[in-house]
């Protein structure tokens, strides 16, 4: 398998990590005397938020017609706001006209630390002590490369000799290999043993990344079943099948019924659980788009950006993990973001007269333009909205329409399969059966199919529609009869 370094770095650069995104820097730059302190604080913030690449020269400005331009512009402006918000008014005047974060960063360095021996010593110490530890391979590479780029800029003319550059390149690779996690021990030893001189830093990164991908492919099933999520939970999470009982996701704070990642460590008292969409999102932190919002670039955040936020899919409160677009100010729950656009099933219907079965197709489409009243709430509007907003599932024949929000309001925690619900289910099933039987009349020596057959078919399709929507929203393809669904107040 060939590793694509450009794709890997792009995925990292344009992913999101909300930790620290909205925190103000504790240090304000006011001159040469505190530049080193300010630089350390800002460097840490940029690394935590995966924005270091926007000041070290790794990221170049994409062309305006490049699909990456919008994402670059958003992050560049964010980093600019952090820098400008952490420098004094006098200094701000010197960089006010600059619109690229890397230009501002370099301008401040030239103003307050040209060839500063103390700063050079600081950077050299950082390089020598840097270790991968809990960072991903890409995170470690980006941090390490940024420090070397800064050191080379600070050294300037001291590093123009070709022999000096070659020696520095070799030292750069050795130090990088030394800081790798122990799981790369065999790969590191092989590179050191088989290559004289050593490959470039970028070539070494590619070799190690290829090895890591091969290991990941070989253990794909294990990694799917077990996830270790840094900064979220100290223990590994195991993928577990649906149990039939609801749970509250520790990420998005929403209810779920389907596959989930759970902590099974005996020492854990948190009862930590993540629904599958949240677990995948927090691991990958991708930059994504949704078909309903084609102009929006959504980033994953571990908490709402600010204040009270509402999901633009279901119109419910955002309480935890969320996909957010800064440019359009839109929010989507991870579960809402991953709702299937279309779901369908084929039913076999028995025809009483011909005594044979015919196929009936039930198809549902997710729509943001609610076409008719919701079967449950009897309204086109969602909740207390003043206008028709939110998403809904509508059947292809136009007979059924359910707000996504109405399904999320179903009270299932209290007695998911309680005796009272099951009793109501049984009573209702019996009533449906009796009414269907009465509607079928005999005459002329044969049976005549009346409204009972149509009613039976309607309720059967209604039950299937419910199950499909339930599975799409909550993640559990449960099997419920007509009576149980009626007991929940769904029709």
UniProtKB/TrEMBL annotation:
GO terms for molecular function: zinc ion binding. The keyword Repeat applies. This is Uncharacterized protein LOC127746553. The keyword Metal-binding applies. Pfam families: C1_2, Retrotran_gag_3. The chain crosses the membrane at residues 458-485. Residues 232-279 form the DC1 domain. Gene3D superfamilies: 3.30.60.90. PANTHER family: CYSTEINE/HISTIDINE-RICH C1 DOMAIN FAMILY PROTEIN (PTHR46477), CYSTEINE_HISTIDINE-RICH C1 DOMAIN PROTEIN (PTHR46477:SF15). Residues 26-63 form the Retrotransposon Copia-like N-terminal domain. It comes from Arachis duranensis. Keywords: Membrane, Metal-binding, Repeat, Transmembrane, Transmembrane helix, Zinc, Zinc-finger.
């Amino acid at each position: 398998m060939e590793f694509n370094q450009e794709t890997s770095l792009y995925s990292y650069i344009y992913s999101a990590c909300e930790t620290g995104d909205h925190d103000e820097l504790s240090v304000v730059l006011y001159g040469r005397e505190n530049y080193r302190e300010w630089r350390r604080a800002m460097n840490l913030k940029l690394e935590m938020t995966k924005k270091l690449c926007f000041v070290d020269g790794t990221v170049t400005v994409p062309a305006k017609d490049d699909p990456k331009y919008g994402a670059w512009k958003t992050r560049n402006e964010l980093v600019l706001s952090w820098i400008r918000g952490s420098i004094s008014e006098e200094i701000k005047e010197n960089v006010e006209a600059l619109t690229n974060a890397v230009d501002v960063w370099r301008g401040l360095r030239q103003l307050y630390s040209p060839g500063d021996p103390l700063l050079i010593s600081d950077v050299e110490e950082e390089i020598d002590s840097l270790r991968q530890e809990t960072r991903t391979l890409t995170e470690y590479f980006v941090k390490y490369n940024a420090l070397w780029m800064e050191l080379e800029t600070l050294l300037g003319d001291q590093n123009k000799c070709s022999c000096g550059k070659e020696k520095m390149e070799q030292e750069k690779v050795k130090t990088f290999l030394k800081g790798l996690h122990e799981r790369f021990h065999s790969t590191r030893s092989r590179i050191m043993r088989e290559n004289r001189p050593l490959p470039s830093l970028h070539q070494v990164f590619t070799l190690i990344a290829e090895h890591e991908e091969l290991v990941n492919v070989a253990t794909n099933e294990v990694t799917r079943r077990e996830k270790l999520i840094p900064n979220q939970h100290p223990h590994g999470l195991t993928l577990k099948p649906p149990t039939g009982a609801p749970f509250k996701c520790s990420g998005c704070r929403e209810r779920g019924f389907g596959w989930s990642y759970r902590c099974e460590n005996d020492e854990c008292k948190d009862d930590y659980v993540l629904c599958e969409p949240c677990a995948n999102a927090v691991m990958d932190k991708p930059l994504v788009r949704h078909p309903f919002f084609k102009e929006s670039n959504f980033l994953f955040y571990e908490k709402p950006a600010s204040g009270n936020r509402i999901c633009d899919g279901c119109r419910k409160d955002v309480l935890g993990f969320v996909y957010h677009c800064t440019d359009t100010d839109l929010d989507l729950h991870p579960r809402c973001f991953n709702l299937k656009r279309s779901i369908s099933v084929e039913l076999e219907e028995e025809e009483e007269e011909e005594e044979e079965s015919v196929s009936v197709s039930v198809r549902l489409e997710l729509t943001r333009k609610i076409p008719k009243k919701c079967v449950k709430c009897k309204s086109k509007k969602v909740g207390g909205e003043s206008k028709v907003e939110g998403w809904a599932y509508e059947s292809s024949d136009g007979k059924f329409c359910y707000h996504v929000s109405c399904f999320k309001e179903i009270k299932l925690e209290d007695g998911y399969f309680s005796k009272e619900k099951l009793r109501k289910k049984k009573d209702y099933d019996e009533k449906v059966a009796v009414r269907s039987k009465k509607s079928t009349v005999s005459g002329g020596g044969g049976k005549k199919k009346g409204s009972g057959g149509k009613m039976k078919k309607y309720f059967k399709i209604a039950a299937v529609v419910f199950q499909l929507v339930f599975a799409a929203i909550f993640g559990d393809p449960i099997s419920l009869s007509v009576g149980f669904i009626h007991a929940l107040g769904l029709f």
